[in-house]
Amino acid sequence: MSHKLPVSVLVIVHTAGGEVLLLERALRPGYWQSVTGSLDTMDEPLEETAAREVREETGIEAKGGRLERWNVVYTFEIYRQWRHRFAPGVLHNVEHLFALELPARPAVRLARDEHVDLVWLPWREAAAKCFSWSNRDAIMMLGEK
């Protein structure tokens, strides 16, 4: 069994007009979030991880917009129910923040094993709907830009 690496990306997918894409988790109904995902290997560049996760989870190609790495990194304790995915003893994850600005809402193709629904919301509403504090904070920063 291969374990997830405790280094991930959080990608706020949004339109130039300030609408933010949120995805509802398949395994946790009612839990809404932006695109997230872990590095496949420790040498995978973070920008590639961000573009890959957006493509895998939504079908959106990052090259159709402006993918920007923010100088923001969150370190947080991994929720107990998800620790089995990581190597024994790994308790914290390091998450790097990105934003993908798109000119307009593209068609979205959900990865059904990960997400069951999607919604585009104005940034304040999107922030309020997120279950994750880091996701909420990131969307608030987007709105302040």
Write the layout of secondary structure elements.
Blueprint: E1 7-15, E2 19-25, E3 32-33, E4 35-38, H1 46-58, E5 66-77, E6 92-102, E7 115-122, H2 123-129, H3 133-144
Parallel strand pairs: 1-6
Antiparallel strand pairs: 1-4, 2-3, 2-7, 5-6
Helix pairs in contact: 2-3
What do these coordinates show?
This protein is an alpha+beta fold and 145 residues long. It has a single domain, classed as Nucleoside Triphosphate Pyrophosphohydrolase (Alpha-Beta Complex). The protein has helices at residues 46-58, 123-129, 133-144; strands spanning 7-15, 19-25, 32-33, 35-38, 66-77, 92-102, 115-122. Strands 4-1-6-5 form a 4-stranded mixed beta sheet, sandwiched between helices. A hairpin with a 6-residue loop joins β2 (19-25) and β3. α2 runs antiparallel to α3. It is globular. The termini are far apart.
Number of domains: 1
CATH level-1 class: Alpha Beta
- Estimated structural class: alpha+beta
Q: Give the radius of gyration.
A: 14 Å
- CATH architecture assignment: Alpha-Beta Complex
Q: Which terms would index this structure?
A:
7 strands; Nucleoside Triphosphate Pyrophosphohydrolase; 37% strand; 3 helices; four-stranded mixed β-sheet; three-stranded antiparallel β-sheet
State the gist of this model.
With 145 residues, this protein is an alpha+beta fold.
